[in-house]
């Protein structure tokens, strides 16, 4: 079951990387190319949503003791999906602003350069945020594993203490 989840994870990672690249290209394209890119990104976003649904179904089938780790991964993937959709919405707004400027005859090269610079900075910040979230995710998973190990050690200690008590009872008898 987890191998299916992992293959979905890989597909999701590849797909989100493609979407991120295409979202960055949307404001730079012109005319029909831009329209086609918007349609392609919308299709890929829908495909990513479907992958998330498949991953959720897989998480439900995973045994409860392992489910926590996968559920936390799902939360981070959903957050990433939300960010992608927000980025896409921003790029479409930039697209509609450019169409408006073309229709009105505005020459917004300097504002366009500023917007591109801001979008690049935003993309860098979001990548950094994703890295931080991934680090946090690993820390949470490590904490969960540590907690499980402590519980196992506690159970083992109880077993050893009971065995010692039995041995001392046997010796005294």
TrEMBL record:
GO molecular function: SNAP receptor activity; SNARE binding
Keyword Transmembrane helix: yes
Record field: transmembrane: none
InterPro entries for the chain: SNARE (IPR010989), v-SNARE_N_sf (IPR038407), Vesicle_trsprt_v-SNARE_N (IPR007705)
Region spans: Disordered: 103-126
Record key words, sorted: Coiled coil, Golgi apparatus, Membrane, Protein transport, Transmembrane, Transmembrane helix, Transport
Presence of the UniProt keyword Transport in the record: yes
Signal peptide stretch: none
Membrane topology: Single-pass type IV membrane protein; Single-pass membrane protein
Domain of life: Eukaryota
CC annotations in GO: cytosol; endoplasmic reticulum membrane; ER to Golgi transport vesicle membrane; Golgi membrane; late endosome membrane; SNARE complex
Chain segments annotated as coiled-coil in the UniProt record: 31-61
GO biological process: one example: intracellular protein transport
Record's subcellular location: Endomembrane system; Golgi apparatus membrane
Residue stretches making up the Vesicle transport v-SNARE N-terminal domain: 1-91
Oligomer and partners: Interacts with distinct SNARE complexes that contain either STX5 or STX6. Interacts with NAPA and, to a lesser extent, with NAPG. Identified in a complex containing STX6, STX12, VAMP4 and VTI1A.
Record's protein name: Vesicle transport through interaction with t-SNAREs homolog 1A
The organism of origin for this protein: Baryphthengus martii
